[in-house]
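Schema walkthrough. Field components (list of strings):
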Amino acid sequence: MIYDFLVIGSGISGLNFSLDSAEHGTVAIVTKKELMESNSNYAQGGIAAVLDAHDSFDAHIADTLTAGCFLNDVEAVKLMVTQAPAQIQKLIDIGVGFNRKKEDLSLTQEGGHSARRIAHAHDATGKEIERALIFQVRQHKNIHIFESHLAIDLIVKNNACQGAIVLDTEKKHIEPFLAKATILASGGAGQVYERNCNPRVATGDGIAMAARAGAEIRDMEFIQFHPTALALEGKPTFLLSETIRGEGAILVNAKGERFMESQHELKELAPRDIVARAIYEEMKYGPVYLDITHRESAYIKARFPYIYDQLWWYGIKMDKDRIPVAPAAHYTCGGVHTDLHGQTNIPGLFAFGEVAHTGVHGANRLASNSLLECMVFSEQTVPTAVAYVQHVGSVEHVEIDSSNTIYTETNVRDIKKEIQQIMWEHVGIIRHKNELNDTLQKLQAIQDTLNTLQKNGRDEMLIETKNLADVAILITKAAIERKESIGCHFIV
Ligand code: SIN
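Field assembly_structure (string):
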C-alpha cells in the first residue's frame, strides 16, 4: 500500500492535518501507543486567541515576541495570532466544549500575557480537543490508523522523503510505510530530562529521525522548563498548570515568603523562564510551594477538577494545602525547520507542532501558544502537501531487512536514565560554559554504544533511547554555540 500522506504522530496537529488532507487522498496515521497518547493530551492550560473586545492582535503579537526575546520569526507570529480566532471557531464547530461564561467563552490568564485570552476546557484542554478530533478521525474512510507503530527512520530516495520504516511494537516486525508525502507531527523531547512533565512518548523521535535524514534542525538550545511541576518524593512530576497562578495562586518559599514580588513586575505571571529560574534559585534554601488556598474551595474544585483529583491521589488537598513544586522540562521550542507551510528542506517531508521549528516561539514560548501553533500550522500545511502529492508521480518500493528485530540486552533502561541525569545536571535550567564540551563527549560515547547495540537488533526502548541520545547531542551542541543567555537558554 502506498499512501498519499503518512502522518507520524497523533497529537492535535497530526489529527487536524489528517482530517483536512483526507479530503484529498489516503492518510495513514502511525502512532507509537494509542491514538490519544500524545503531548497534546496532557496540555492543561488552553489555547491562546484574541477573543475579547479589549484585547488586540497587536498585544498578542507583542506578548509572543517579548516572551521569545524577539528571536521569533515575526511573519510566523503574525500569521499564528491572526488565525487564532478562526481556529477556535473550527474547534467549536467540531464539538470542542470550551468553558463559557454565559454566551461568551470564559478566558483565563497565563504568564507573559497582557490580557485574559486563553480559551480552555476546565484544566484539561488538550484532552478535550483530542477527544473531538479523534471522534472525527475514526469515522473518516480515507484515514487508516496504526496504533502501537513506532516510526524508526525516514525513507529518503532520490533526494525526496518517501515514507518511513516502522516497527509494529505488538507483532514485533518492521515494515516500510510508503507515502508520497510524509508528515512529522510527533511532538517534542521532554523525556531527554530527568525531571520532566511530558508523557513517556515524548522522546524526540521526529527530530532525531529528521536530523539523521539530513533535515535542518534549529534552536534546540531553547528547552522550556515549566516552573511548577509537583515535587513530592516518589510521586510523578505532575504538571500544575500556569492557569492556577492565572487564577491567583502565589509562590512561597519555605518561610512562607512570596519571593516573585522582588523578581519581576508580573510577579508569579512573569515569563516562564524567569519564574523557573527564580524557583530553582530559591530551592537552594528549601522547598517552594504553590498556594491557592485563599480561593474558595468550591471554585477550586470546579475550575481545576482534573488537577484537584490527581493531587488528592497524591495526598494533597489543593484547597487546603500548599503544593510543593519545582521546575521540569516541558517544551522543545526548536526542532525541524520549516517554512510557513510546513515544508522542510527535504522534498516530501513536512513538519508542524512541537517537532517543528517555524520560528514562532523564538527563545521561549508564550504559554498556550502551542496548541494554537498546532492548529494553525497543520492547517497551513494542507494545501502545500496536497499540491506536492498531486505533482509527485509514484513512489518506488523499498526492500528492508525485517529480520533480527528483537533486542534482548537489558541495560538500555539504565542508559536512558544516564542520558536524562546528564542533561538535567549539565544542560538544564542553568548551563555552565566550562562543562558543556565534556558533557558532549559523554553523550557521544553513549551514542556510540547505542549504535553498536542496534547492530544486534532493535526494540522500542532501544530506538527511543537512541533518539534521546541524538536529541541530547543536538541540544548540547546548540547550547555550546549560543554563548550568551537569552530566553530559556541560561548560560554562565
Ligand atoms: C500550563 O497549563 O501551564 C501549560 C500550558 C502551556 O504550556 O502552554
